[in-house]
Amino acid sequence: MLRLCRACSSRLVLQPTPPISPASFYRGTSSFLHLKLFQPTTSRRRSVFQPASPYDSQCRSAYTISAQKLVSAAPLKWQPYLRLMRADKPIGTWLLYWPCTWSIAMASPPGVLPDPYLLALFGVGAFLMRGAGCIVNDLWDKDFDRMVERTKSRPLASGELRTRQAVALLAGVLSGSLAVLLQLNWCSVAVGAASLGLVATYPLAKRYTYWPQFVLGLTFNWGCILGWTAVHGDLSSWAVPAALYFGAINWTLIYD
C-alpha cells in the first residue's frame, strides 16, 4: 500500500506504509469501538449507540413506551392489576397474536383478505389470554419472584396485590376470554378450551423440565390451530395448520 505525504515544501513523495499485523488491527479496532461506542457523550443529540437510560438498553419499542404511558395514565387502583397482566409490556400479546393472524390468512380463500371481525376477536382474545397466562405464572412463582432482582417488583411478589385479588382478576380475564371464544364455532370452542392445560402448566415446565421454551412454544402458538378452525369450522385439512404450528414452535425456541 502506498501513501502520499509532503516531504518538503511542495514536492510529493510516494512512501510505502508498513504492513498491519492482525494483532495490531484487532487492538486498533477494539480501541475505536471502546472510544466511539461505549464512552459517555456530552452532545445534546443522542448517539445511536448511547443509551439515554438503563431502560433503553433493553431496546424498548414504541409499543412498549405507549403501553407504559397508558398504564401510568390509568387510575392508581387499576395499575397493579394491569401490570400483573403485563399490559405495560405488550410484546407478549403480539407474539401470541401473530400466529393467529398467520393461520387466519392461510385459511382464507385465495384472493380474499382475512376477515377483520375475526382478526379483532383474536386480538382481544390474545390480550386476555396472555394476561391470564401471566397471572397464573405469577401465582405459581410469587415466592421465587421475591428473591430475583428482575421480578421482585411484580405486584404479587412485592405485596401490592394479594393472592385472592389475583385469583379474582384471573376469573374475570378467563370469563372475558370465554365470551370471545363463544363467538366462534363449536370446534373452535373445543380447541380453545384445550389450551387451558398448557397455560396452567407452563410455569411448572420451568421448574421440572429442561425444555420450558418448548412448552412455551406449544402454548403461545396454539392460535395456529385455533385460527384455522375459526375459518374452516373443522380440522379436516389438518396438515396445513399442523405444519404452521410446528414451524411457529421452532420460531419460539429461537426467539426465547
TrEMBL record:
GO MF annotation list: 4-hydroxybenzoate polyprenyltransferase activity
| UniProtKB keywords | Isoprene biosynthesis, Membrane, Transferase, Transmembrane, Transmembrane helix, Ubiquinone biosynthesis
Q: Which GO terms describe its biological process?
A: isoprenoid biosynthetic process; ubiquinone biosynthetic process
InterPro entries recorded: Prenyltransferase, UbiA_prenyltransferase, UbiA_prenylTrfase_CS, UbiA_sf
Per the record, membrane topology reads: Multi-pass membrane protein
Provide the cofactor list for this protein.
Mg(2+)
Spans traversing the lipid bilayer: 91-111, 117-140, 214-231, 237-255
Which GO CC annotations does the UniProt entry carry?
mitochondrial inner membrane
**Enzyme kind, highest EC tier:** transferase
Give the main localization category.
Answer: membrane
Q: Which Gene3D superfamilies match?
A: UbiA prenyltransferase
EC annotation from Swiss-Prot or TrEMBL: 2.5.1.39
Q: Per the record, a Pfam family?
A: UbiA
* Record field: catalytic activity: an all-trans-polyprenyl diphosphate + 4-hydroxybenzoate = a 4-hydroxy-3-(all-trans-polyprenyl)benzoate + diphosphate; all-trans-decaprenyl diphosphate + 4-hydroxybenzoate = 4-hydroxy-3-(all-trans-decaprenyl)benzoate + diphosphate; all-trans-nonaprenyl diphosphate + 4-hydroxybenzoate = 4-hydroxy-3-(all-trans-nonaprenyl)benzoate + diphosphate
Which compartment or compartments is the protein found in? Membrane
- Assigned protein family: Belongs to the UbiA prenyltransferase family.
Q: What is this protein called?
A: 4-hydroxybenzoate polyprenyltransferase
